[in-house]
Amino acid sequence: MTKNTSRVQPADALMRQARRHPFRVATLAAAFSLFALYVAWHEAHGPGARHNDELPILQARADDNAQPADGAAMPAAAAGGDLVKRGEYLARAGDCVACHTADKARPYAGGLQINTPFGTIVTPNITPDPDTGIGRWNDADFLRAMHEGIGKSGERLYPAFPYAEYTKVTDQDVLAIRAYLNTLTPIHYAPPANSLKFPFNQRWLMVFWNLFNFTEGRFVPDPKQSAEWNRGAYLVEGLAHCEECHTPRNFMQGLKSSSRFSGEVQAGWHAYNITPDKNSGVGNWSDDELVSYLSTGAAPGRANAAGPMAEVVSDSTQYLTHEDLGSIVKYLRTVPAVSGGEVRARDQWGHPADAVTALRGTAITGVNGAQLFVANCATCHNWTGQGVGASAPGAYPSLIHNSAVGAGDANNLTMVILHGVSRTTKDADVLMPAFGNELTDEQVAAITNYVTQQFGNPQSTVTADQVAKLRTQQ
Question: What is the 8-class DSSP label of residue 265?
């Protein structure tokens, strides 16, 4: 028999070890202190605690007449078609399909790769398939994932899934979404595993991320505000999770609460400032223009949705009722205005070009932005940059008074040239071809700089090296 030689170290030995490795001991002590703080917080705010913030509010709805009044129980009939219909509307408000669909032939089956500073996260299958989806999840599992960021097996979810916002959604609405997802065709598909660097592949570390960046709890209506404002706040802060794209992030990739909605770059695209600041934000837009942009993707003389925002309009906001879109605008009008330092609004730049006349009879040498613009862009946008079709739903937009052209950086304009535009709404099917495979980085830079010089903010330029980096962005 082998003798067990392990024993507890005496106190003086521990003290000597602490003196030899002070940094290691301090680090362990700090980690234990953070964990203790989290445990205390969880005891006070965990799933067993009762919150005053779980009050029902006037919720987003697809059919006002079919929904219960505030605080009323869902009628028995709603457990069927009405509940599913409501869940479909709410799933659209949350734009669930965008992240959980990599292949449009397999909607909601996951597999979309999301690049983060810590590695690649792959979205899961949320169809009711029992083996690869959420078919074996019960209501409690689904509620815990949405409200606490914890999966069925108790694993910590990564905040690429916006549970920091979804935690504000009421139980009734979360279960309506689940009812809708249960009606989807089960798709047997297991997405690839995440590819995260150590130590970020250790899910238990999310305990500490949550400690600093997550507050669990349902939305609390502000009694000083109107029902319309509260509904807008509920949507913007909860299901629509607008901050996930439009708010800068801290070093832990949590949201900077001090700069809410002031804009951020996501995968190469600039999600612009949407605070009421008149120069940096949307303070000079009318309510009707904001509603039009969210419902159609276009606000003539202001902006045209492209990239991720075009997907948001196509998959989500175009399906929201006029009442809910108006509520979103009502709420955004009241968030603190944040100035990005711009002295002129993005949509207030530009004038028609006449440079094309200078090209006549001129021998072109090297890469010339004006020549490339006339050859590749003028057919749709006119050589003057004024577009074709004015404000018609399928118009080719003007490059004058255009947010992407007048922005302080040329990211979105460059990305549009590289990757094109695809936006389908009930009003129009908008398509701009991608030129990334047709033009070199130097040529794309030349067109971009010509467009900003002629029709937009002349201080906004891009280099061929910057184009090369943007070309690789998803």
Answer: E
Beta strands 195-196 and 303-304: pairing type?
unpaired
- Into how many domains does the chain fold? 2
Q: Which residue among 213, 244, 261 closes a domain?
A: 213
Q: Is 340 exposed, middle or buried (0-12, 13-18, 19+ CB in 10 A)?
A: middle
Where is the domain boundary, 213, 239, 262?
213
Within-domain flag for 301: no
| Closest C-alpha to 165, from 216, 232, 97 | 216
Q: What 3-state class would DSSP assign to 468?
A: helix
Q: From residue 469, how far is each of 263, 270, 348 by CA, in Å?
A: 20, 14, 28
Tell me if 443 is assigned to some domain: yes
Q: What is the CATH number of the domain that holds 442?
A: 1.10.760.10
CA-CA distance, 334 to 237, in Å (whole number)?
13
Residue 208 lies in a domain: yes
Query: CB-side exposure of 127: number of CA atoms within 13 Å?
Result: 18
DSSP letter string, 274-329: -SS-TTTSSTTS-HHHHHHHHHHSEETTTEE--HHHHHHHHHTGGGS-HHHHHHHH
| Residue-range definition of the domain harbouring residue 101 | 64-213
Strand partners, 421: 432
CB within 8 Å of 4: residues ≥ 6 apart = none
What are the pLDDT tens digits along the chain (474 aa)?
444 444 434 444 444 444 455 444 444 445 445 544 444 444 444 444 433 333 333 443 333 333 443 333 444 444 578 999 999 999 999 999 999 999 999 999 999 999 888 889 999 999 999 999 999 999 999 999 999 999 999 999 999 999 999 999 999 999 999 999 999 999 999 999 999 989 888 899 899 999 999 999 999 999 999 999 999 999 999 999 999 999 999 988 899 989 999 999 988 999 999 999 999 999 999 999 999 999 999 999 999 999 999 999 999 999 999 999 999 999 999 999 999 889 899 999 988 887 677 777 677 778 999 999 999 999 999 999 999 987 787 789 999 999 999 999 999 999 999 999 999 999 899 999 999 999 999 999 999 999 999 999 999 999 999 999 999 986
Establish if 459 belongs to a structural domain: yes
Decide if 138 contacts 131 (C-beta within 8 A). no
CA dihedral 455, 458, 460, 463 (to 10 degrees): 100
